[in-house]
Amino acid sequence: MQRNIGQLTWTEVEALDLAKDGALVLPIGSIEQHGPHLSTDCDLVFADRFLDLALERLDQHTKVWRLPILPISKSNEHVGFAGTWYLSAETLMATLRDIARCAVNNGFRRLVLWNCHGGNRALLEVAARDLRIETGLMTFQVFASGVMPDPLDPLDAREPVYGIHAGEWETSVMLALAPDRVRLDRRNCEFPKFSSETLALELTSATVGWTSRDFQISGTWGDAAAATTERGQQRLTPLIDRLAAILTEIAGFEMGA
Ligand SMILES: [Zn+2]
């Protein structure tokens, strides 16, 4: 089954039976600095390949299709580092609105915003609700770290809090997925000089609006030097299985009322 909708003809798209089940996935990539050792398209590669691996695992009767990846998104937290390209929040929201309208025009009832870049999360949550109201689509946002919490014990106690970017997790998974994107001899370890009893960088009730340049010299958050291919593979398999299960459920999901 061809699941990349861009590789179907218009008559094949028109013939898709989407009256009940069926979902369209928009993978959202980003191009931004990922330390001195990972290519800037790290999160794009994750979003693109994780999705294709999950789609390969779906039952052939499960109606899920994907769009080509949206390559640039909201990664302005890395502004000031070379290699960073981003859309403003306004531009990204407008782009998502236009794509959602096209999904409706093509008969889809469900749109999945699939994303591997933390800087997009807040905006995609807003987008998912606004697009639900504005278009009537059932909308979903799926984020890689939320799909599968890290099954491995951290090698450094700081990693779960600060190893959020180009650190041990991302570098290990990239070694397993696309080793050509990793400069082995440039892997480094850097944790932010951030100390507060009360405030955090993200995911708690009181946070700081930060950029990488506020805290980082190399762009690496975490211990990339500790990354291994084996640790990447141990994370990859459960993540892909879980993503396939989530997409299967979404394909037949209905609102309860
Ligand atoms: Zn990343």
TrEMBL record:
GO terms for biological process: riboflavin biosynthetic process. Belongs to the creatininase superfamily. The keyword Acetylation does not apply. Its cofactor is Zn(2+). Signal peptide: none annotated. This is Creatininase. Coiled coil: none annotated. Keywords: Hydrolase, Metal-binding, Zinc. It comes from the Bacteria. GO terms for molecular function: hydrolase activity, acting on carbon-nitrogen (but not peptide) bonds, in linear amides; metal ion binding.
